[in-house]
Amino acid sequence: MSPRVLPTVLTAALIGGILAAATPAEAAVSHQRPIRLLGEKIVPNALPFQGTTVGGLSSIDYDPRTGGYALICDDRSAINPARFYTATFPVTADGVGDVTFTGTKPLLRPDGTPYPPLAQNDPSKPQNEQTIDPEELRVDPWTGDYYWSQEGERTATTLIDPSIREARRDGEYVRDLPIPANEKMTPTAGPRQNLVLEGITFAGFGSLLASEVEGPLLQDGPEPTTTSGALSRITLQARSGPVLAQYAYPQEPLFAAPVPPTAFATTGVSSMLAVDQADPTKFLMMERSFSTGVGNKVRVYEIDTKGATNVLNVKSLGDAKHVKPVKKRLLFDAADLGLSTVDNIEGMTWGPKLPDGERSLIIVSDNNFSATQVTQFVALAVPSERL
Is the pLDDT confidence value at 70 over 80? Predict the structure, then answer.
């Protein structure tokens, strides 16, 4: 049956009545401009560049010194030495240009050599010389150096702590930052394998560094399921090192059960970004999920740590009765952006400012060096009133 069409005068009267009855907050929301897709570019798989294979791009950060981007690769020195890339990706209010890689360097150990692959790891060496699992890289707004995170290792025979390290722009090692004791690997507590330090970002005009654990610590309870979420931890520390606070972050339930039900599925926070580097409390959190036989779900939330409980000295979030987590609200679901595909999106950064109060948000996907996945650069226009 065809829908009924109301006379124009009556329709206008009804709309006017609805708007008149709306609260100021509701009216403001109804007039918000949408987040819109500026464009996307797909980088060819197995692209050769300066003796390396491009892929596994797990993070992206805008570099105001060059107008380009720095990207970390999560290759654990299995294909080429663990490394980062630099690239350009022109973005305007009218669209995007091609991705052009401009350089690559290996991340170096304190002795000046590249990190070894997992199969050649020497457990007798100091932890900052053992194999790494790189995940996120940020450009220091003060010095232009790189701060980068890695997930460490948890197996029956090997425990390597996650870390946040500083490197020069040529990859030279500078230092390790301290991490909270509860994020160190022990046989019965600490991070789960491959669910560790996925995101870092600068805040407070660069004086603070925030980081997040991808999934709940072992002592904080089980991972999310299709029926329940989980609590992971956000850490705030001074750029000089001291850890200042931790906050509980409420993760969403797994968006869909895998097919078949015994197949692989995972969910967690894959990137973290300060909304404004002047503000030490507001961040964007990228929640990325994958279920075999179903696909990927990527959502970005805005959070505010104001009023949240400092859980730095809380041994278990699962046992805590009066923990107040951070506040969060959905900013967008990647499924609603009109992308050619929603793949393994893992990184995000603010790009160039756009006219009319919009900001460009750049996101990138990690193809896992798989022929069935893509390396995808995406640019979005985010109106200021959405933040």
Answer: yes
* Residue 60, CA distances (Å) to 22, 87, 130, 330, 385 in order: 40, 10, 24, 21, 24
Q: Angle at Cα 84 formed by Cα 242 and Cα 192, nearest 5°?
A: 55
DSSP for residue 324: -
At 304 the three-state DSSP class reads: strand
pLDDT single digits (tens) 133-158: 999 999 999 999 999 999 999 999 99
Give the three-class secondary structure for 18: helix
The CA angle 14-17-18, to the nearest 5 degrees, is 90
Pairwise CA distance, residues 212 & 220, whole Å:
14
Place of tokens 């015994």: 262
What are the CA-CA distances from residue 147 to residues 102, 135, 281, 377, 383 (Å)? 20, 11, 20, 22, 29
Q: How many Å apart are CA 41 and CA 49, to the nearest integer?
A: 17
In this structure, how many other beta carbons lie within 10 angstroms of the beta carbon of residue 126?
11
Residues 88 and 160: their CA atoms lie apart, in Å, by 34
Residue 37: the pLDDT is 98
Q: Which of helix, strand or coil describes residue 231?
A: strand
- 313-338 per-position pLDDT tens digit: 999 999 888 999 999 999 999 999 99
**Residue 25 scores a pLDDT above 70:** no
Stretch 241-255: mean pLDDT: 98
User: How many Å apart are CA 211 and CA 255, to the nearest integer?
Assistant: 24
pLDDT band at residue 11, thresholds of 50, 70 and 90? Answer: very low
Pair 268, 297: CB distance under 8 Å: no
CB 149 within 8 A of CB 136: yes
Transcribe 86-119 into DSSP letters.
EEE--EETTEE---EEEEEEE-B-TTSSBPPPGG
Structure pTM? 0.92
According to DSSP, the residues that pair with 86 across neighbouring strands are 70, 103
